[in-house]
Design a protein that fits this description.
single chain, 145 residues, mainly alpha, Lysozyme, three-stranded antiparallel β-sheet, two-stranded antiparallel ribbon, elongated
Amino acid sequence: MTDVEQMIMRQEGTGPMKDGVFYPYKDTTGLLTIGYGHCLDRKGLTLDLAFMLLKMDIGGAIEDAMRLCSIFDELTRPRQLVLISMSYQLGHSGFARFVRFWDAIHREDWDHAAEEMLDSDAARQTPARYAGLIKMMRENKSEWI
């Protein structure tokens, strides 16, 4: 760690942190801040930083999907992409609640898995996203590959 990093880290301190994760907070002037004094209200995120965060979040979504699906590596790539997208949107705990969906996946009942996706709050909240994901699950095809 450089001298500048050490100095700024000590001077800025951090906002709320739990289990090694920083959470946004209002600084002494009322600006939304995260980490070691990164002001989201003034600076926002650069494209490079946003892309770095995206890549990290995708990595976490893949790990969660693999933990939730014991046959993840055996699935075709389009169906893996469905699980990754859902995991990215819902997070581990939200995605874990799709009990009937997971049962259908492990039975390789793709139509039933698609029906479970359709009958979800996530599909009602983001219908265009889920229309594409459901089609990918049923047809085993993806425009992304």
